[in-house]
Amino acid sequence: MEQLALKRLKGNRRSGFDPYYRINYEYSIPSPGRYVWQWFWDSCFHVIALAKLDAGMAVRELETLLATQKDDGFIGHIVYWGRTGSLMSAIFMQGRFGEWRRRHSAMIQPPLLGQALEAVWNATGDRELLNRNLPKVIAYYNWIARERDPDDTGLFSIISPFECGMDNSPVYDAPLGLNHPGRISLLWANRKLDWSNYLLGRFDLAQIKRRNGFHAVDPLMNAVMAEGLRATARLLAESDHADEIASVTRQAQKIEDAINDKLWDEDLGYYVYLYGNEEKRLTDLTAGSIMPLICQSTPKERVQRVVEEHLLNPEEFWATLPVPSVARNHPDYDPVGESSIWRGPVCMNLNWFLVHGLRMHGHTETADRIAKRSRDAAYKDFREFYSPETGAGMRGTQFGWATAVVDM
Predict the structure, then answer these.
(1) What is the pLDDT of residue 92?
(2) d(CA 295, CA 311)
């Protein structure tokens, strides 16, 4: 079955010479036809899968992604490779004015760069490669901490739903001025936000805060960063940069402490989102609300409560194919909708996080059940999403990130 995953990632492979970076790039596109550029978290999941399947391909994809890193550590959520890249960057208006030649957007995505490098290290044991790329990973995490948590609270903010990866999650409907929206309403609201960030906010959190524009603390994003920093600390122990272990570990712990201090809701028994300058609580129950399960220092009693009350609750997340992106009893839950994504269907990359988090906290049986059902669905058809009610594949076809099941 692993050969099916490798065949899929090879089939999605794209390579060429980029005239701006003057490098030969190589990566797997998410899906033919619909997604033809290099998306940050898609690419990290491709690296994680390829580390199990073809380590050389994994290395080349990771270093292609890192090639676009700015001197300050930033890496955009989309890279438009090739000779038309600067034109595409300008057309989509998701990058900073005047930076089109850099070929990337000005937004981020779930920051699992540490996890991706750890997968490559585990596959290759290449110390030179580790020493070469670890400083880039640390610089990336430092950029997020510096630019998106300027008050040093331990929690960083996103400036668009696109950044959290769960693009059209209903948790962000109210902040976008929407109420049970359809596809056109969602598309229009997000495009208006892109234009606002481009023209007024310059994709800069400080400017956005001054205008009290869209910014939110997302538990999924912060949990992924904390776990990415934990992976980075483990890698530092194997590298020539061991003197940085303490500072990276402190950074991870600070995020986890802030998640548990500021986002946990004792009455609800899950983690909430914060929105805007007033830090308004957003309590929609989504997969992001339970994602701090992946954090190392999440209290055991909270892990137990989230698992028993929510994850294993058939009215919320325990479906035929767990784990839906939105609780089944949410008013906007749509298990088969393909036009307005992230409002119910299962995504294998979220299951990857949860499977590893559950095993870390000793919930091995639950993790194994999710992993088995995920593999059974993905090996039938590598798709962008799956129906939690039937397990049938949905939306994007021949989808790369579904191959993450090889690492479950």
Answers:
(1) 80
(2) 16
